[in-house]
Amino acid sequence: MAPPHIADVGYSAVSRVKTRALMAQSGDAEFVFVLDPASVSQRNMLDSADGLSRAIPRARLIKVNAGHPFLSEPEVRRARSLAIGRTGIAGEMLRYPEDAGNHGGGADRNRQFHHDAQPVR
After folding, report:
1. Burial of 97 (C-beta count, 10 Å sphere; 0-12/13-18/19+)
2. Inter-residue contact 12 to 22 (CB < 8 Å)
3. Which residues, including other chains, have CB under 8 Å from residue 23's CB and lie 6 or more apart?
4. Are 82 and 102 within one domain?
5. 72 and 114, same domain (yes or no)
6. Is residue 75 part of a domain?
7. Segments forming the whole domain that contains residue 25
8. Distances in Å between the alpha carbon of 101 and those of 45, 62, 113?
9. Which of 119, 118, 91 has its CA nearest to residue 106?
10. Residue 60 and residue 47 share a domain
């Protein structure tokens, strides 16, 4: 059996995205996994870093007080849902325009629902 081509490997579990990005920029890390879109954009401006990037669908959550009388009517909840600019959110905030409406119940998907959950009491 031939000896390994790589003599030594170290692994650092770094929880903060910004720290991983800085490690990649400074050369302290040879491989960095899971950077946020802002760090990827910043990394792309550097000549010292090469990278392979694949977008991973991400989600954002909007919490509402479902018990509030204003949201008691299904039409109001449906209108609020349809008013969310999913294309803008996916493209600008998440930087993943291909995901607009595909995973979060986009406008086209909302039209498929016919059941309205009973109000929480």
Report:
1. middle
2. no
3. 12, 14, 29, 32
4. yes
5. yes
6. yes
7. 11-54
8. 30, 15, 14
9. 91
10. no
10 Å CB burial of residue 108 (0-12, 13-18, 19+) is: exposed
Structure confidence by residue, pLDDT tens digits, 48-94: 667 676 766 666 777 888 888 988 888 988 898 888 887 877 777 76
pTM of the model: 0.44
- Three-state secondary structure call for residue 21: helix
Tokens for 77, please give them: 């909840």
2 within a domain of the structure (yes/no): no
- Ordered DSSP codes for 47-82: SS-----------------TTSGGG-SHHHHHHHHH
Residue 82 structure tokens: 């349809």
User: What is the length of the chain?
Assistant: 121
**Cβ–Cβ < 8 Å for 120, 67:** yes
Of residues 9, 12, 14, the one with CA closest to residue 35: 14
